[in-house]
Each structure stands twice: as structure tokens, then as C-alpha cells.
């Protein structure tokens, strides 16, 4: 693995930037190269406090992880994608939910041995704007916040802007006359106050931060990303090649627990919201988490209500068609960082290089098969993306 020098690092939260487009205060590549061996056999789980992590958290709350498979304590909470990525690469944690484009970046740019086991969820994100913004055209000349450069949030937002003849720009002031929008990376917890004081005109992010803005009446959901890209993946369940090689049975047991937790959430979302908040897994208030897990259709203006775009979905199968379409979209996405890792990626083969679905296929079979998750029997689909 090629070592990156410190000048290649990017720390969005602390103001440092790197060509790799990663966020953090340490050299992730160096961390991967110099990390020591794991000191315990139990797997360690890390997460960000967003509803995307719900399957990992409900699996713990419901006691679905077999004794000895994962660390006895709660999953470890991280406040930024930077911190989670650094801990994962440096072997402080073994299993996590990561943004799927970020997982690909880590694997290709840093040689971090990242392996996607399955999807953690579908949908679950939205573009939230200031209350006085009625259409996308009003975003021209303003700043919009994203959680990470290599995220489905940034990808879909840029697709939407371009479809409305608005150009996303980086490190350049937005211009209303030139119809540009400046994109800025911001931690999700900072987005809500930034929108409240109007330092940004909107943000695109996972829940429950969209629900919080609506509940506090400081913003409104303009569009659910599921209304643009039907049942898209956002965060995926990941581990490392060394974990699979050393403890394949434990990886299977973790995957089984997460898949079972997805079914638990689907059966009773209100109960899941209670477990996530009362168990202190998520710091947000219960009304926000409950809303995020079960948005009612009204009063949201859904363009394609038959897609149920407002509902975060919980099914584990990683469709190859999505991976291919995602990589194609990444090529068209503006980021503040290095894009070189995309040059040698073949969309036709990238799925098999990134994803190991052997564990999740066994888990699906053990938990009622494709029918239990509303999946087609042949596990194939055509991606549906509608920008206008």
C-alpha cells in the first residue's frame, strides 16, 4: 500500500484538506499500514448517531449479537465520518456503517481492505431548505451543506442542481447571476443551527436531522432523496478483509444479527424509535427519531408517492446494479479532493471487488428468504432515477 504524506490529508471539521478527500486529523493510510493486531477476539462496532445506524444498534439493544461475538459494551459512538473512518482503518473497530461511496474510496485510495457485507438501509435522507425557499432555483447564490464529499447526498444533490441548470462549485463564492451553489462540508449536528441562523440556505443529510428542522420549524423538507433515486443505498455494513479471514464465523453472526434487526425495525418502527432513544444509542429526542423512522405522507409533497420515498427502508441485499450506477455517478460529482482513484475503476467489475455478499445471502435465507424483505426472487432490479 502506498503511504500518503500528511499534506495529502483532509480534515473537513478541523479545516485541513487533502487530495484524498477524506476528513480527519490523522493520516488514514499510515494508520492502516501501521495499525497493530486486534487485542481481543470479540468484534468492535462503531457508528455515527443517525438513524442509518439503526440495524447495528437495534441488534445490540435486542440482544441479537451472540455472546462473545462482539464486545460486551455498547457500540462505539463517533461524531464524524472522519473519526469513524480513522478508527475503522486503524483497527480500533472492526464493523461499522459507512457511506457507500466512502467505502469505495477507502478501498481504492487507501488500500484499506474494506469489504461491504450488505446494505444497512435504503432511503433515509432528504434535502432540507430554509422555510422561505420554495424551489431549487432559489438556492442559486447561496451555500448548501453536505455531510461528506463522497456521499450519496452530494451525488444526488449535484444531479438535482444540474437538472435545474444550477452549477455546484467548491471553494468559490456562489453567484446568483451565474446560477451557482457553493457546497460546504458540515457535520450533521452543525447543520441545524447553521440553517437556523441562515448561514446556509439548506442541507442534504441523513435523518433525524431533516425531521428536527421540521419539528423546530427552522426548515422544511424540499425533497426526499428516495423521490429521486428509488430505494437507493446510503450507508452499508462494512468490515475488513483481515476480519473476514480471521473470524468468518463471527462475521456471519454479526450479519445475521443485523439482518434480524432489520426485520425487527420493519415490524415495529415506533418501538425501535423508543429503543434507540431510551437506550441512549441516539442523542436526538424521541419525536425526531420516531418521525424519521415513519414519516407520514402528508404534508410532504411527494413526486412519486408509489415509491414511498419518505420511508427509510431496511433490507440487506446489495444490488450490483446500484453499485454500477453509483460509480458512474461518482465520475460526474464535484469534490474538494483527489478523484484519481476513480480512473481505473470498471463499473462492470467494481461490485464484485468491493462487495462480499456471501454472508448476507446466508442471512437472508435464514430469516425467511427474499419474500421476508420484499425482494425479487432473482435478486435483480433496474435502477430508477428521476431528476425532474
Would you kindly provide a written description of the structure presented here, covering whatever features stand out?
- This protein is α/β, with parallel strands linked by helices and 388 residues long.
- It has two domains: 6-122 and 232-372, D-Maltodextrin-Binding Protein, domain 2 (3-Layer(aba) Sandwich); 125-227, D-Maltodextrin-Binding Protein, domain 2, CATH 3.40.190.
- Helices cover 35% and strands 13% of the residues.
- It is built from 15 helices and eleven strands.
- It has helices spanning 28-34, 54-61, 81-89, 100-110, 152-163, 188-196, 209-215, 241-246, 248-267, 269-278, 286-293, 320-331, 350-354, 358-366, 369-372, and strands at residues 45-47, 76-77, 95-99, 114-119, 125-129, 143-146, 167-169, 180-185, 202-206, 220-224, 235-240.
- The strands form two sheets. The chain has a six-stranded mixed sheet with strand order 7-8-6-9-5-10, with helices on both faces.
- β1, α2 (54-61) and β2 form a beta-alpha-beta unit.
- α2 crosses α9 (248-267), α6 (188-196) packs parallel to α7 (209-215) and α7 (209-215) packs across α11.
- The longest helix has 20 residues, at 248-267.
- Mean pLDDT is 89; it is low at 1-21 and 23-34.
Task: Describe the structure using short key phrases.
388 residues, alpha/beta, D-Maltodextrin-Binding Protein, domain 2, 2 domains, six-stranded mixed beta sheet, five-stranded mixed beta sheet, 11 strands, disordered N terminus
Amino acid at each position: 500500500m502506498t503511504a500518503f504524506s500528511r499534506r495529502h490529508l483532509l480534515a473537513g471539521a478541523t479545516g485541513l484538506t487533502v487530495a484524498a478527500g477524506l476528513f480527519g486529523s490523522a493520516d488514514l493510510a499510515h494508520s492502516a499500514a501501521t495499525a497493530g493486531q486486534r487485542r481481543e477476539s470479540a468484534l468492535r462496532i462503531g457508528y455515527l448517531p443517525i438513524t442509518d445506524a439503526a440495524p447495528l444498534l437495534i441488534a445490540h439493544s435486542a440482544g441479537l449479537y451472540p455472546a462473545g461475538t462482539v464486545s460486551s459494551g455498547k457500540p462505539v459512538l463517533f461524531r464524524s465520518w472522519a473519526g469513524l473512518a480513522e478508527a475503522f482503518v486503524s483497527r480500533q473497530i472492526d464493523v461499522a456503517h459507512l457511506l457507500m461511496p466512502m467505502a469505495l474510496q477507502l478501498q481504492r485510495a487507501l488500500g484499506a481492505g474494506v469489504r461491504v457485507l450488505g446494505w444497512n438501509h435504503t432511503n433515509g435522507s432528504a434535502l432540507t431548505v430554509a422555510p422561505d425557499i420554495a424551489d431549487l432555483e432559489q438556492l442559486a447564490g447561496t451555500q448548501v451543506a453536505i455531510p461528506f464529499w463522497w456521499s450519496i447526498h452530494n451525488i444526488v444533490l449535484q444531479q438535482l442542481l444540474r437538472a435545474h441548470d444550477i452549477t455546484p462549485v467548491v471553494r468559490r463564492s456562489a453567484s446568483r447571476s451565474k446560477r451557482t451553489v457553493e457546497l460546504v462540508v458540515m457535520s450533521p449536528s452543525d447543520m441545524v443551527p447553521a440553517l437556523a441562523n441562515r448561514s446556509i440556505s439548506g442541507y442534504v443529510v441523513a435523518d433525524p436531522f431533516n425531521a428536527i428542522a421540521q419539528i423546530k420549524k427552522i426548515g422544511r423538507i424540499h425533497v426526499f432523496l428516495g423521490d429521486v433515486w428509488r430505494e437507493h443505498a446510503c450507508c452499508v455494513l462494512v468490515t475488513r478483509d483481515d476480519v473476514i479471514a480471521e473470524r468468518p464465523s463471527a462475521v456471519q453472526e454479526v450479519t445475521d444479527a443485523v439482518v434480524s434487526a432489520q426485520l425487527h425495525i420493519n415490524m415495529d418502527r415506533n418501538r425501535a424509535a423508543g429503543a434507540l432513544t431510551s437506550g441512549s444509542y441516539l442523542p436526538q429526542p424521541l419525536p425526531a427519531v420516531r418521525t424519521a423512522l415513519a414519516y407520514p405522507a402528508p404534508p410532504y409533497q411527494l413526486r412519486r408517492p408509489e415509491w414511498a420515498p419518505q420511508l427509510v427502508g431496511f433490507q440487506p441485499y446489495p444490488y450490483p446494479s446500484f453499485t454500477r450506477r453509483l460509480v458512474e455517478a461518482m465520475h460526474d460529482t464535484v469534490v474538494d479532493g483527489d478523484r484519481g482513484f476513480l480512473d481505473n475503476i470498471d463499473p462492470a467489475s467494481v461490485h464484485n471487488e468491493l462487495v462480499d455478499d456471501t454472508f448476507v445471502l446466508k442471512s437472508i435465507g435464514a430469516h425467511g428468504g427474499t419474500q421476508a424483505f420484499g425482494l425479487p426472487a432473482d435478486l435483480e432490479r433496474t435502477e430508477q432515477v428521476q431528476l425532474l
